[in-house]
Design a protein that fits this description.
Strand content of chain A: 25-35%
Distance between the termini of chain A: 31 Å
Number of strands of chain A: 26
Structural class of chain A: alpha+beta
Radius of gyration of chain A: 26 Å
Largest interface: A-B, 67 and 66 residues
Oligomer: homodimer
Shape of chain A: globular
Number of helices of chain A: 14
Largest sheet of chain A: 12 strands, mixed
Chain lengths: 492, 492
């Protein structure tokens, strides 16, 4: 095998990094904390974008584009916003380079200092709400349902490819509504879109819930989240949807005249997912041989490797393969015939396994004579020999089965690692084993903070869709009464 | 009519701005020189992206993503590059904001100064070739055919929506090849992709040619361009494709081992089109009533406006309209029924005309009784009454005819404004009238510069596909011998 991947059991973190780099998904760039997304990785991200974009549009959302830069003064307007997270960011102070007077290279031209510094957007609420102010006069102008696909920058100190990078790609939806109810309903609708996408496209089971106040987006009245479990038992927040109340409308003075002729502040939501989803995809499904991609997101769904002894046999096998390829493509599948003549089949097998291609089809000269072909599944690593006749229909169905199986496997893993926990002593031990702990909590930020300080665990969410959590009990930390369990975990 | 548009004849520049703003394509943002692309404008850009992206992929190009930031030192490496244009750019010097010690708002944290300044990419050759260095070892690694869709920033002093903005969206392709011939062929292939897209999707006639050395991209050995004529007779450079030789490979030390085992520098191309195409689209086809969109790029291809007196009639007309809509959508067309009940039909007609929707369909109660519908074409502003039965097929064909007609109209306009010019006295007069002048030129940068200094006209291109230009003659400025005419014009 060409590229060795670290075993998960040996070093999970190194395993993750190996997969990202060796499967050609992404790499560190020359710029601290910024990644290069390589073609194979970007092709997966494009598939994610395409599916999500279609789902957004079905809900009436339209795409738009707002500036990369935000005037520094905008950050002062939304005080909570600033306190929350906007401090570590890239600040543009000058607008020109000049040749170094000493004759070597270029330097910043001190004469080209900006009057007001510009911040590279870490998120766009402020610039968007300053724009919405001009778009909204009357109730007739509402709702506004905009999304943008773009890059954002947060100057993270410790970065990991896809999971936490200084620059990342994402979508951010920003909606404006006449009423609180309508805005809350939109925030809920969008978190359900994310959950649907995670489950059905990424094959990723997620729990939908509310964030506790400690974990809310700065400036939000409510943050909804989808939380997934990785194979090391840690939680990964995969997408969030915020009900922002009238905070941004008040900061940027955005009002509308209602049907009764009265001026009212506008209600807001925002919601986003990012290239972090790539990290979730890798960590949820990968194994010690490499990536395991759900067919719905695999850039190559079927790879074919010819195995031959004679040049004549080679050509005959290729002819057959291109015939099967054509039939599969007619059904909408993406297929690659790996006809590189400098590499041996075993090397190719390992490479496509590393890259997570869901189905591998191999054919030798004896297969050709027998009218058979070998079909290997990436998810189970099993092989079977089937008739070449009708193999396209077989694979068409197999891809569905693989998509389903990957989801089921991840779901079983997650459910096996969710457990109830009712005492603080038990909690301290259990939380270190990984997984989600369903616990009673007294509802106070102080208790959550104390638990975090002692164990690094946080409340991942207060589930909305698992009624199993609604029951009476007492807080694991304070013993005070509680009406429902919440999900505790150590997270990425 | 709700929104007045300035006449072209009165003030062409104001007309352009009116169209952009009043048709809801884009607007100035709170950040100097940066625009907001509004949903209707962005929907057109998305269509452009989708068509171009498919064309790129057919040539074997894959998408990837490279960092927004470029270390300042990279600009020093490619000396010609810096001399050319990279000086007006956004410079990031700090990575943190802090609360103002005086208690009001936020300030830049002086302790968070970067060791090396980062430049927001004005184009990505340097960061990409520093990355390619790690991707290329042997001839087996070539070619590399990457493209990225992204934002770039050039600190322009005078900006105009879409045509020249500090931040704009574009795609930039960057390819790496083993031989000069292969790289040159790729640069030519891509400029032809652009020409094909301009002609067949944008309905925009373009001349394909080489840039003169004065107008070449800094660092390129050859720049190919597509040049279009706007309705004021000015030229607009709509896309460029560069053969970069080994310049970037040498700056970033990118070599490969060839089949004979020898180290060689890699050959490069880059090519791009931007949101400037939006400006070309507007200016090439718009009229005094607003935008005229070619059906291939129209977010809404058919709009339907009901005209009714009774609520009963209203509902019956709507039922019929949704039936036609369904039939049109089944043929892949995008259709909107404008059912807003607070606006009169005349207002709606004017609005959809302003927004350039190719076909408008109106139906009144008498139409319904007669089984007819009124079909209006945006390109010719003509109307006809046709049978409602089979109108979907009629419109399906009409959309093709409109696409073709918009192209033909633009082509006729352009061809009527291309003329030969053989004397310097004549040139000075004619160039002020607008249009393209086909002239002999002695081939020297000095002559081109002198002509530009006296008239503002530049050589837009040395055409590759119009053999009409190949003939003997003498330079209009110096009288020296010349073997072919070139295209002179005043440009955007």
């Amino acid at each position: 095998m060409a590229k060795e991947v670290t075993n998960r059991a040996e070093n999970y973190s190194q395993w993750y990094n190996d997969l990202v780099v060796k499967a050609d998904l992404a790499e560190q760039s020359a710029v601290r904390g910024c990644m290069v997304i390589k073609p194979y990785g970007y092709a997966i991200w494009e598939k994610m974008q395409s599916v999500l974009d279609g789902m957004f549009k079905k809900t009436g959302v339209q795409n738009a584009y707002f500036p990369l830069f935000i005037p520094k003064s905008f950050f002062s307007r939304e005080a909570e916003h600033v306190a929350g997270f906007a401090k570590e960011c890239a600040v543009v102070t000058h607008h020109r380079l000049m040749n170094d007077p000493d004759g070597k290279g270029v330097v910043v031209d001190p004469a080209a200092k900006l009057e007001e510094e510009l911040i590279v957007r870490p998120t766009s609420e402020t610039i968007i709400w300053s724009t919405y102010k001009n778009w909204i006069t009357s109730w007739r102008d509402l709702p506004i349902l905009c999304n943008q696909w773009c890059n954002v920058v947060r100057w993270e100190m410790r970065t990991r490819l896809f999971l936490r990078t200084a620059e990342f790609l994402w979508q951010e939806g920003h909606t404006a509504h006449a009423t609180s109810d309508e805005a809350q309903a939109k925030a809920e609708e969008m978190v359900q879109v994310y959950a649907d996408f995670a489950r059905n496209t990424m094959a990723l089971p997620v729990i939908v819930g509310h964030k506790s106040p400690n974990e809310r987006f700065a400036g939000a009245l409510d943050t909804l989240t989808i939380e997934a479990m990785m194979q090391d038992g840690k939680a990964l927040q995969a997408g969030t949807s915020h009900f922002l109340g009238q905070n941004f409308a008040k900061s940027f003075d955005v009002t509308y005249q209602n049907k009764e002729g009265k001026q009212e502040y506008v209600w807001a939501t925002s919601w986003g997912v990012s290239t972090r989803l790539m990290g979730a995809l890798i960590m949820a499904h990968g194994d010690d041989n490499g990536l395991v991609l759900p067919p719905a997101l695999a850039p190559i769904q079927v790879v074919m490797v010819p195995i031959f002894k004679t040049e004549e046999g080679h050509q005959a096998i290729l002819d057959k393969m291109y015939e099967i390829k054509k039939a599969l493509e007619a059904q909408g599948h993406s297929v690659k015939v790996d006809d590189r003549d400098t590499l041996r089949p075993g090397f190719k097998f390992a490479e496509w396994e590393l890259k997570g291609v869901p189905v591998r089809l191999a054919m030798g000269e004896r297969d050709l004579a027998n009218g058979t072909v070998e079909v290997a599944r990436r998810d189970t690593l099993t092989k079977e020999t089937v008739a070449a006749e009708g193999v396209d229909q077989h694979i068409h169905e197999l891809l569905d089965a693989i998509q389903q199986n990957i989801y089921t496997k991840a779901l079983n893993f997650r459910d096996a690692n969710i457990r109830k926990c009712d005492s603080w002593e038990e909690f301290k031990v259990e939380i270190q084993k990984g997984g989600f702990l369903l616990c009673h909590w007294d509802g106070t930020p102080e208790t959550e903070q104390a638990i975090k300080d002692e164990t690094k665990a946080t409340i991942r969410c207060i589930p909305v869709d698992s009624c199993v959590c609604e029951e009476e009990g007492t807080c694991i930390y304070t013993g005070k009464p509680s009406h429902r369990r919440v999900v505790f975990a150590i997270s990425y």
